[in-house]
Amino acid sequence: MSAKNFKLLIVEDSPTMRQLIVFALKRVREFTIVEASDGVDGLKKIAGNRFDLILTDINMPIMDGLKLVSLVRNDPANKDVPIIIITTEGAQEDRERAMALGANEYLTKPIQPTRVLEAVKRLLKV
Q: Residue ranges of the Response regulatory domain (predicted)?
């Protein structure tokens, strides 16, 4: 594992689901994790920080994860930040839409902590 520290943003409206994702990622000491409760909150946190990776749900109030992906991809400062979608939407068309918008990985709930951690490590190349 690299000695580099990585800053991750988790955008998820369910506090319980956020806790599960944080629990999965806290196994790696080099990860600093910031949490956001929806797309708007996530966007505010992105505006004031530089993240190495973003994990987001699709279905959230105020701003959904697909809109967030689209906005991040259109932001020159963050367009290359890897994004993982974690969602209950398991249909192929939902997956294709998310990937077309610029998501790097699409995981369906219920989450498996090892799969989340593997996807994060693969995208961060650690």
A: 7-124
* pTM greater than 0.85 (yes/no): yes
The 83-87 sheet, strands edge to edge? 31-36, 6-11, 53-56, 83-87, 105-108
Q: Greatest CA separation found in the chain?
A: 39
pLDDT in the model for residue 2: 47
Alpha-carbon span 86 to 82, nearest angstrom: 13
Per-residue pLDDT at 3:
56
Point out the residues of the chain with pLDDT beneath 50: 1-2
Written in H, E and C, the secondary structure of the chain is: CCCCCEEEEEECCCHHHHHHHHHHHCCCCCEEEEEECCHHHHHHHHHCCCCCEEEECCCCCCCCHHHHHHHHHCCCCCCCCCEEEEECCCCHHHHHHHHHHCCCEEEECCCCHHHHHHHHHHHHCC
